[in-house]
Automatic annotation (TrEMBL):
<keyword id="KW-0285">Flavoprotein</keyword>
<dbReference type="Pfam" id="PF01494">
    <property type="entry name" value="FAD_binding_3"/>
</dbReference>
<dbReference type="InterPro" id="IPR036188">
    <property type="entry name" value="FAD/NAD-bd_sf"/>
</dbReference>
<feature type="domain" description="FAD-binding">
    <location>
        <begin position="8"/>
        <end position="364"/>
    </location>
</feature>
<keyword id="KW-0274">FAD</keyword>
<dbReference type="InterPro" id="IPR050493">
    <property type="entry name" value="FAD-dep_Monooxygenase_BioMet"/>
</dbReference>
<dbReference type="GO" id="GO:0018658">
    <property type="term" value="F:salicylate 1-monooxygenase activity"/>
</dbReference>
<dbReference type="InterPro" id="IPR002938">
    <property type="entry name" value="FAD-bd"/>
</dbReference>
<keyword id="KW-0560">Oxidoreductase</keyword>
<protein>
    <submittedName>
        <fullName>Salicylate hydroxylase</fullName>
        <ecNumber>1.14.13.1</ecNumber>
    </submittedName>
</protein>
<keyword id="KW-0503">Monooxygenase</keyword>
Amino acid sequence: MAPSQSLEITVAGGGLGGLTAALALRQQGFRVTVLEAAPQLGEVGAGIQTAPNASRVLIGLGLRPEMERIHTAPQDQVRRRWADGSVIAQLALGQRVVDAYGAPYWHYHRADLHRVLLDACVAPEGAGPAVAVHTDAKVVELDRTDPDRPVAITARGERFAGDVLVGADGIRSSVRDLAGFDDTLVFSGEMAYRALIPGDLIAGDPATRFLLDRYHSTIWYGPDKHLVHYMIRNGEYLNVVGIVPCTEQVERDWSGPATAQDMVDDFADWDDRVPAMLSKAKDDVSAWALYRRRRDPLWVDGRVALLGDACHAMLPYQAQGASQAMEDAAVLAEELGAAGRSDMDGALSRYVHRRAKHAGMVQDASLQNMSFYHLPDGPEQRARDEKLRTFDGESDVSYDWLWRGSPLHDPDNEAITYQFAR
Ligand SMILES: Cc1cc2nc3c(=O)[nH]c(=O)nc-3n(C[C@H](O)[C@H](O)[C@H](O)COP(=O)(O)OP(=O)(O)OC[C@H]3O[C@@H](n4cnc5c(N)ncnc54)[C@H](O)[C@@H]3O)c2cc1C
């Protein structure tokens, strides 16, 4: 029996960060309860990428067979110029990344990845006790009368006590506010269109068919805007994220519905293939105001610990928000699992020590990309494109430290070398 078996952890938030943490903690022998505010668990209808740093964590949790079932493997990262679509730079992903970093760079439908994590959390078989998941369980109050047993209280008045409470409840974390952490939220002035465009429509148009020739991840750079797209579910959908200045309404509402025409209008003067692609979106287009959290290394207060967007929400310009939450999860579980009851407080400070600086660097890198990606045409843009051509990172960021991820103590996890199935 693992030493941590009798210890209880409550995780507020059943997003990608919360579920990865729940699974990692379960595998260390903890009894884990997830409290999710929504009436049903799930994810937004959009794609997600995991670079090797996050793929490594997921594979380390034993999810490789399921990930192989749901992933799409991009072979290159392609960078294009807004005006004519000319290729600025191309970076090999695929086997090169596996050889260099020991784990793959993969794309998925968010719902598929979320489902894989949820199934592994609640499966009766597998290491550690199955995770108890409660939906319609919004945490609205904390009772910290016993500082060693924080109690999360839900809107329905249910009380969940644990040895540690993990606030994985996203960018507008209630746990963060209830525990008295600083308000670090900052609005970026930008918003993201999100859409899943049916792959058969992309394949059916000679202007966009090239997107199916070879799976790749593409970033288009333009003044004040950029566009990212990649295929998921082996060509079933093209996932599109278009970043543009935020409208007043979306800033006010945080997110809301949008249309294909909105996207086309915002990218109307770009290379013809861009509006041709965006016009094929159906009625599931949405717009999301982009907020971030200011870098702040305070993630723990007593037995309350923050994880994921609750402590280090970042702009999505490194595609790393969920991936960093997965790294948090791996390190938190390692530290708590190794410590046992007598040193929970030490374990929580080691968690922050190992993760906060690293995640803060990714927050900074993502923020730097906001100006780096959106330069107007001119000398600075030409210098940027030259830098991308001889790729040593975006802005001051090399992918090397980012994709290697936080060092893990678990030798099985650290030493993962992924082999492609033959
Ligand atoms: C356009 C865009 C593209 C992105 N692309 C990528 C990418 O490719 N790769 C990547 O790694 N990251 C990406 N990200 C970032 C990523 O989506 C987030 O960083 C990640 O989802 C955060 O996970 P989380 O679990 O911390 O929070 P969330 O996903 O927000 O989950 C929080 C959960 O907590 C629940 N909750 C909220 N309040 C409460 C409460 N009081 N009580 C109980 N439950 C509560 C919510 O319902 C939710 O289920 C992208 C983000 C955007 C906006």
